[in-house]
Amino acid sequence: MKATYYLVCGRTALAIYRSQADGERLARLLHQEAMGMRVASRMLPEDARPKAPGKRIACALSVMLDTPLPIEALVVEPASRRQSAYTRTILDSDPFHALSCIHFENDIFVASPELVYYQLTRGRDIATSWMLGSELCGRYALDSDAKDGMHDRPPLTTPEALDRFFARSHMPCSHAAGKRILPYLKAGARSPKEAEIAALMALPRRMGGRGIPGVTLNRTIALTPEAARVAKRSHLEGDAYLETIDENVEYDSDAHHLSREAHERDERKANALRMMGVSLTTITAGQLNSWSAIDAILDGLSRKGGFHKRLETPDIKQAQQHLWRELLSGRARI
Q1: What's the CA gap between 201 and 249, in Å, rounded?
Q2: How many CB atoms lie within 10 A of CB 206?
Q3: pLDDT of the residue at 237
Q4: What is the dihedral of CA 31, 20, 140, 25, to 10 degrees?
Q5: Whole-angstrom Cα distance, residue 66 to residue 22?
Q6: pTM of the complete model beyond 0.70
Q7: Helix, strand, or coil here: 145?
Q8: 103 pairs with which residues across the strands?
Q9: What single-letter DSSP state applies at residue 218?
Q10: Residue 135 burial class via C-beta count within 10 angstroms: exposed 0-12, middle 13-18, buried 19 and up
Q11: N or C: which end of the chain has fewer CB within 10 A?
C-alpha cells in the first residue's frame, strides 16, 4: 500500500512561512538541511502520494495552522482533485514537486519555499515575482498584524536554489517572469522597500530596471580604525551597496529618523563611509514615491557608473516607469 500524506502548498504554505512561530521553525529546519544535517523533509518514499484533505481535515488544518480556508494542497492524480470552500487542490504530476516538501507534523508536509515560488509566480509579472522572491530570500516576512506590516525572519532560500528548482522541474517555464528574474534577484533584503529599490536598480533595462551591476543588499562593511572611531562601531551594514562604483544607497524611512539619537547615528555612519571612500545616496519615502525624483536619482547612479553605451529609448523609459508603478502600487504583493 502506498504511503499517503497531506502536502499543503501555494498560498496556504506561504501563510505558514509568514507566521512568526511556524515560519521561524521551518526556517531553522531548512537551514539545518542546507548545512547537510538530516531532517525529515526529504524522507518520504519515492512512491508516496499526497492526498486532498476533506472538509473535516481541512477545517482542522485551518485551525492548527491559523490559516484561512480553503486549504491549498498538492495532488498528483486527476481523480484526487477537489475544489470547495474547504479545499483547493493543485494538480501537479511532477514527482520532483511531490517530494519537495518539509515535514510539519504527523502526516502533514509543507511545500518547500522553492515549490511555493514556482507555483505562485506562474502567470505573474516581473514585479510580483521579484517581490515574492525577495521575501523568500530576504530577512523579513509580510505580516498584516505586525506594527510595520512585517516581522524579521531568516531567509528561507536563495536565488540560486530557486533557479535550480526550475531547472529540475519537468516544466522549467524558462520564459516565465519568475524564472527570468532569478539571475538578477538579490538576497538579504530586510524590508519590502529595500526589495523595491533593488529591483529598480538591478533588473536589466528591458525589464524596467537600470541594469546596475554589483548590487549587494545589507553588505557588511569593515571600517578602518579611524572610521570606526567616528561610527563608534567596527563595521557598518549598507542597505544597497553598489560594488562597481563604491556607492551605498540607503532607504531613509520616516519611522527610523524621528529621534535626535537616530539622526546623529546616521550622520556618524555617513561620515565613516566617506572616510572609507564610499559615497552615500539617500532615498527618502517621498522620493521613492515620486517618479520624477526616483528617476533622477537612478539616472544619476547609472551615469556615474557609465554602465550603458546606448541611451535609454522611450520604450525603455516607459518600461522603467511601469515597473516602478507596479512595485509601489502594492499590486505586486501576494
Answers
A1: 10
A2: 11
A3: 86
A4: 0
A5: 10
A6: yes
A7: coil
A8: 109
A9: E
A10: buried
A11: N
Residues 6+ apart with CB under 8 A from 94: 169, 170, 171
- The CA distance from 17 to 11, in Å, is 10
| Residue reference for cell 516607469 | 321
By residue count, the chain amounts to 334
- Pick from 215, 181, 218: nearest CA to 201: 215
**Cβ atoms 19, 66 nearer than 8 A:** yes
Domain boundaries, the chain: 4-120, 159-329
Q: What is the pLDDT of residues 125-137, one digit of tens each?
A: 999 999 999 999 9
In angstroms, the CA 71 to CA 190 distance is: 29
Give pLDDT, residue 254: 66
- What pLDDT is recorded for position 38? 45
Strand partners, 111: 101
- Mean pLDDT across the stretch 62-73? 94
CA distance 51 to 75: 6
By CB atoms closer than 10 A (0-12, 13-18, 19+), residue 273 is: buried
